[in-house]
Amino acid sequence: MPRNTKQRREEIYQKILNENSVRIIDLAHQFQVSSETIRKDISILEQQQLISKKHGIAEINQDYNQLPLDIKIGENSQLKQNIAKKALDYIQDHSIVFLDPGSTTLALCKYLPLKKNLTIVTNSLAIAQMVSQTKHELLFLGGKLQKRGMSMIGVFALQTLEKIQIDTAFMGCDGFYQTGGPTTFSLEEVLIKQQVLTKSKQKILLCDSTKFSKQGTYTFARFSDYDVLITNPISNEQRKLCEGIKRIEIAK
Q: Fewest beta carbons within 10 Å, which of 13, 88, 95, 154?
């Protein structure tokens, strides 16, 4: 699939996600392509269970609208790389680090070889695969596989977490617009995230500025639960959305 087609489909999904529903004819005008092309784009997104289509309108899939990881990785990639580089400053050699499933934490894996003798704890299949190619020790949580996010969830993962003491946890979210804390679209991830927070000495939230205008279904923490937020340059209004967090680091 040509790169411009992939980008258009990602932008179409983002527009539908932000506005909840969009007329197909309006999408054709905005992206300056034929209605037939837009219908094909919509059909692909519908097959991925991201949206639904009816009566000439494309709507967000309300049953489950968590982005698959392979789509997330391509979004705002430079912002995520900058955040990942800044996050590396908070990793001490010889420490135990938890990496939450997500594209920004996955970007952080690229820089882990710069550190020495880490123990990486994760429930993300993608992160586990990357860490397995380094010299660091890997503790991979077992449990039930959540296929959309390719992460392990459930009782077995929680039981394993109970036995681990974490020095630093890096976590992502699906947004926090007017929610008072980070959110996720996945109810099954809530208990995992909350357990990680209770087991970690230092808790760091990683997110790019697009998350300031989005929100997931379930709030899993308050901002006061976190020691640091690492993000890209934000406005004073955006800073007010995450009041309570102890420190905000800007990655440039």
A: 88
Contact by Cβ (8 Å): 173, 184: yes
Residue 190 neighbours by CB under 8 Å, 6+ apart:
184, 218, 220
Query: How would DSSP label each residue in 90-121?
Result: GPPTT-EEEE-SSHHHHHHHTTGGGSSS-EEE
Nearest to 157 by CA among 142, 147, 145: 142
Mode of pairing for the β-strands spanning 57-60 and 96-99: unpaired
Helix (H, G, I), strand (E, B) or coil at 145: strand
Q: Which residues contact 89 (CB under 8 A, 6 or more apart)?
A: none
pTM, 2 dp: 0.70
How many degrees, rounded to 5, is the angle at CA 198 between CA 179 and CA 104?
Answer: 60
Contact 75, 13 (CB under 8 A): no
Strands 57-60 and 51-54, sheet pairing: antiparallel
